[in-house]
Design goal:
Length: about 375
């Protein structure tokens, strides 16, 4: 198939540091290339891919200090996609909702993966206005706040199997927290759990400007209060294997409906079990008692730390291999692409967002 992947411009594909959506777009794009598809990636110019790259900006927007407003650049992205839309059997958008008014004329060849939280008050009205767009969720739990929409399926994220090597017998005895410093990620819980467990904690996380106040008022004082807490800061992909692989466990003490939680399967790929709070997608990802422990509060998390010897790190990695590879993710998406009405038929009739019938002409899938 001829497939377009349309990525956000905030980070490169893959990102240099933090960036879950762009990382998944990269893994999916490369897996589709491996499976023999003709893939075109619309992304920032510093992206690295074996697909055909259409660079929209020279660098990722987050790394360009001159960029103040990302919207003009995403309008440029949408125009580039519009001009080349007829070239593709399927167009896969990863930019939430900006494109939806623009793609009505070729809606039968489009699918949109929703990577973020969907419990925000402004979203139901929007998605009711665009009910015909084929949407993909990244967990079943993510769907719960949505009005009735045109779900194409749920596709769980996947990683290249050789991206992170398992560390079966080598751990340095510390607990790990990886991701972002923010109230919903609850690094304060991780610090207290480690302190109560008598275990050192290493925190590898970025601090966005919007969360700087939370860091200074809530988290930084805890680093002074408790011993054996090390703040490392933001780490890159190469550092991640060592950081996660040498940990006794990853703490994932979230306090919000996490749509997926990529760091959980990254830890599993390293053979590192996950101690995660029962929120959002966690029960869909962690096999309790196999790849980690699902807990309801800090007391249970402390108990779970004491029970880590019950888990077999080889089985943690096996759980990853069984469910969370990029090849599986790509195959799931190809099945969705092939089921798109416009990808299979030369002409279909679809109601536009005003309820009128419009005949849309498409090329048959290659």
């Amino acid at each position: 198939m001829k497939i377009a992947q349309i990525a956000p411009l905030a980070e490169s594909v893959p990102p240099q540091f933090y960036g879950g959506t762009e990382r998944i777009v990269s893994y999916l794009t490369e897996a589709l290339v491996d499976q023999g598809h003709e893939v075109t990636l619309f992304a920032s110019g510093d992206s690295v891919t074996r697909a055909k790259l259409v660079p929209i900006t020279k660098t990722a927007l987050r790394l360009n200090p001159l960029v103040q407003d990302p919207i003009p650049y995403h309008m440029m992205l949408l125009d580039a996609v519009r001009q080349r839309a007829d070239e593709f059997d399927a167009l896969h958008f990863h930019i939430d909702l900006l494109h939806m008014p623009m793609v009505q004329d070729f809606i039968g060849r489009t699918v949109t993966t929703l990577h973020g939280r969907l419990d925000l008050p402004d979203l139901p009205a929007f998605y009711r206005a665009f009910p015909d767009h084929r949407l993909v969720s990244i967990s079943d739990n993510q769907r719960l706040p949505m009005p009735p929409v045109n779900w194409a399926g749920t596709v769980l994220h996947g990683l290249p199997p050789d991206l992170l090597s398992p560390r079966i017998d080598r751990q340095d005895g510390y607990l790990a927290f990886l991701g972002r410093i923010s109230p919903e990620k609850r690094p304060d819980r991780a610090i207290r759990i480690a302190a109560r467990s008598g275990k050192p904690l290493k925190i590898a996380a970025k601090i966005d400007n919007v969360d700087r106040g939370y860091w200074e008022s809530e988290i930084a004082p805890l680093l002074d209060l408790y011993r054996n807490i090390e703040f490392i800061g933001e780490i890159n992909e190469a550092q991640k294997a060592e950081f996660l692989g040498n940990a006794s466990a990853l703490l994932f003490p979230i306090d919000w409906p996490e749509p997926f939680g990529l760091v959980m399967i990254e830890a599993m790929a390293c053979g590192t079990p996950v101690i995660a709070f029962r929120c959002g997608s966690v029960p869909e990802i962690i096999d309790h008692g196999v790849s980690g422990f699902i807990v309801n509060d800090e007391d249970q998390a402390v108990d779970a730390v004491a029970r880590l010897d019950e888990l077999d790190r080889a089985k943690v990695r096996a759980a990853f291999d069984a469910r969370f590879t990029a090849d599986r993710m790509a195959a799931d998406y190809v099945a969705i692409y092939q089921d798109l009405s416009g990808a299979r038929t030369p002409a279909v009739r679809l109601p536009d967002r005003r309820g009128k019938e419009a005949e849309l002409h498409f090329q048959a899938a290659g």
